[in-house]
Structure formats: C-alpha cells, structure tokens
Write a structure and sequence with these properties.
This protein is of the alpha+beta class. The chain has seven helices and eight strands. It has one domain: Transferase(Phosphotransferase), domain 1, CATH 1.10.510.10.
C-alpha cells in the first residue's frame, strides 16, 4: 500500500492524523499514540470511574485501539449511523476522506437556527446510541464530522458496547465541555431537547462536572490541549 502524505490534519492527545493520497484518492490516515499524554488521559478516566465506585476498562494500547475502532465502526454502520469506511489497517488506520468540517467548527461559524437544528439532531442520535448500549467515551464536538448535513462519527477507539450508565454519562460530560464559547446555551438547550425525545436525560453531577472542568483547565495550562 503506497500512501502519499499530503498534510497534517491533527496532532492530538492519543493520535496523529493526516490527509493522504492512495491510488489518486484522498484518504484519512490515523496513527495511534502511546505516551505520557495517553497515560494521563487514561488516569483521568480511571479517576472518574473511582468517583462512581466502578472500574470500566477502555483499550489503551495502540493495537487494541485500532481493533476496537474497526469493530465499533462496523457496529455503528450496521445500526444505521454514519461512519467513514475503513479502507485498511496495520499499525495505523486508513479510512475514507469525508469532505466537511467538525461539529465544533460548524457550531462556531453557524447561525442560531442552524446550531439548534444540528444540536437537536445530535441529541437524538446520541440518545439512540445510548439506548442501544453504546457509549463513545470521548464525545467531543471535534470528534464528529458534518457533511451535507449528515453527522459522521469518528475517533471511536475508546468507544464501548454494553456500556454502563456512567460511560454514557461521560459522553454528555465530554460533549458539554467542548461546545465553542458563546454558543453554549443555543447548542446545549436544543441538544437536551433532542436527547429527551429518545430517553430520559440524566442530571449532570456538579462534582464530576467540576472535576472535568478542573482537569481540562489544567491540561490547557500545561499545553496538552
């Protein structure tokens, strides 16, 4: 497989991704990292588990995360959710390139009407995933793509099936924390309404939300985010 790397797309906590060319077609290439940042993220997750007196492991090593992402990609596709098709995998993942932008960028640059429409749709979809026993674990707005008004789910390396309520709760926390400044109330209000169309919306615990905000602020301060 001859890949030609065209440009860096993202250098994140747990992976590095590129736009590449394969047989004259654009593809997305993702390399999975295992370093201090990965261990720190995993440690924060385990602290959340301890808050709830539950230990719910997630895959941490690159090979495990690649296999988990492929498996969850197939599962979401079977259930009717939009996901980029996986083309190949080895020590990295190659998937189709989706033209569009992240949910984060779309919210940041859209009108109030569009934000509310997308948020309501996102709420219904995430609630449907939860009803089917799936939690994404890392549900940041940057991990969702919008293309032709369709929602695509990406970065499923930590997602789980047969999820506990606490893991579904983490989806709400990570989404809540990643809404662009100035757009929070427009998005969150409509998201909650969409979620409630499918299932009961849990009350966000102040202790966990506060811990999440503290961890997020600390990571930004030390240059990890």
């Amino acid at each position: 497989m001859r890949l030609k790397i065209l440009k860096l797309v993202n250098y994140g906590w747990t992976n590095v991704s590129y736009l590449a060319s394969l047989k004259n077609k654009k593809v997305f290439v993702k390399f999975y990292l295992f370093n201090f940042r990965t261990l720190l993220l995993f440690s924060v997750y385990m602290l959340f588990c301890l808050f709830n007196l539950k230990i719910s492991p997630i895959p941490i090593f690159p090979k495990e995360r690649i296999e988990n992402e492929k498996r969850m990609n197939r599962k979401l596709e079977r259930l009717g959710f939009k996901v980029p098709k996986v083309i190949a995998s080895d020590n990295f993942l190659v998937r189709e390139w989706i033209e569009g932008e992240s949910l984060y960028e779309d919210i940041k640059n859209s009108s109030s009407k569009r934000i509310r429409e997308i948020a309501f749709k996102k709420g219904m979809q995430l609630a449907s995933l939860h009803e089917k026993g799936i939690a994404l674990i890392d549900s940041k707005t940057s991990n969702t793509l919008l293309s032709n008004n369709q929602i695509f789910y990406t970065d499923l390396e930590f997602s789980v099936s047969n999820a506990k309520e606490f893991q579904k709760y983490l989806d709400l926390l990570t989404l809540n924390m990643s809404i662009p400044k100035g757009k929070y109330f427009e998005f969150w209000e409509s998201f909650v309404l969409g979620y409630k169309k499918v299932r009961e919306f849990p009350k966000l615990r102040k202790d966990l939300l506060g811990f999440c905000k503290l961890a997020y602020s600390l990571f930004r301060f030390i240059g990890f985010l």
